[in-house]
Amino acid sequence: MGSLKMTGKAPCAALPESSCAYLLQELKMIWDEVGQEENERERILQELEQECQEVYRRKVNSANMSRIQLHQALAESEAEFTNLLLSLGERSFPGRVSFSSQRPYCIIKLRKTART
C-alpha cells in the first residue's frame, strides 16, 4: 500500500466527500489553519497508514477464513455425496463439481458404468 502524501492543493469539488483523498485534503486544510507542525503531521499520517493496513489485513484474514470454511463445507458435502452413492450401490464416482465463472450454474460430470 502506498504512503499517504500531502499536496498543496485545496479539496477538489470532483472528489466525493467520503473519499480518502478528499478527507486527506480536508485534514491538510485544518492543519494549515491551526498551524500544525510538520513532524506532528507526519506522525499522524504514519498512524493513519498503519491503521489502514490493519483494517485491510483484518478484511483479508476474514475473507480467507470464509474461503477456508467454504472449502471445508464443500469437502464435507462431497464426502456425504460419495457416501450416498456408495449406499445406493454405485461403483463409480462423479467428477468434482466445476463452477464456471461465465455461467451461474454448476456441471457435474458422471462416469457411467455397467451395473453387475
From TrEMBL:
InterPro entries reported in the protein's UniProt record: MAP65_Ase1_PRC1
Any Gene Ontology biological process: microtubule cytoskeleton organization
Keyword terms of this UniProt record: Coiled coil, Microtubule
UniProt-listed Pfam families: MAP65_ASE1
Source superkingdom: Eukaryota
Coiled coil: 34-65
Example of a GO cellular component annotation carried by this entry: cytoplasm
One of the record's GO molecular function terms: microtubule binding
Family membership: Belongs to the MAP65/ASE1 family.
Name listed for the protein in its UniProt record: 65-kDa microtubule-associated protein 8
